[in-house]
Design goal:
The chain is of the alpha+beta class. It has two helices and ten strands, in the order ααββββββββββ. Helices cover about 15% and strands about 50% of the residues.
Length: about 140
């Protein structure tokens, strides 16, 4: 194998972190169709081809968690998700609300290789409430 070909092959090898980041970003940014409600404390959002699933749920301690699977195998293990505002983690003591699907198909001027950028995606907005402070917010995917 030539040195150039060998270098090319090495460039196609991704670390686990790169793979997980790319998988999560692609799922959350562009491939989320309508969610399927599983239970009042859980949402499953499945990619159009059915290979990638995002599960968002509240555990027994009322903590917001997520998990991403690819073809049924975990690629991101169950992990807490939250945001701290004024020292208060809004991912704890939380309740899930309704979900609202959306679709974007917009074009706008851009600099660089293309004169026009295209933003075409499906997503879901999930309403959440931090129970102790009654703070309402939403998670947009």
């Amino acid at each position: 194998m030539t040195a150039a070909k060998e270098k090319s092959v090495r460039n196609d090898v991704y670390s686990r972190r790169d793979f997980l980041a790319a998988t999560a970003a692609s799922v959350l940014a562009t491939h989320l169709p309508l969610p399927i409600t599983v239970a009042p404390s859980q949402f499953r959002i499945v990619s159009p081809d059915g290979n990638v699933t995002l599960r968002l749920f509240v555990d027994a301690k009322s903590t917001l968690n997520y998990q991403v699977t690819f073809k049924g195998q975990p690629v991101i293990e169950i992990s807490p998700i939250g945001i701290a505002v004024d020292g208060l983690n809004l991912g704890r003591d939380v309740a899930l609300g309704k979900s609202v699907p959306y679709r974007l198909n917009e074009k706008y001027p851009a600099r660089g290789a293309h004169a026009e950028a295209v933003n075409h995606c499906y997503g879901t907005s999930i309403d959440l409430t931090h129970l102790p402070s009654k703070t309402a917010f939403c998670l947009v995917s």
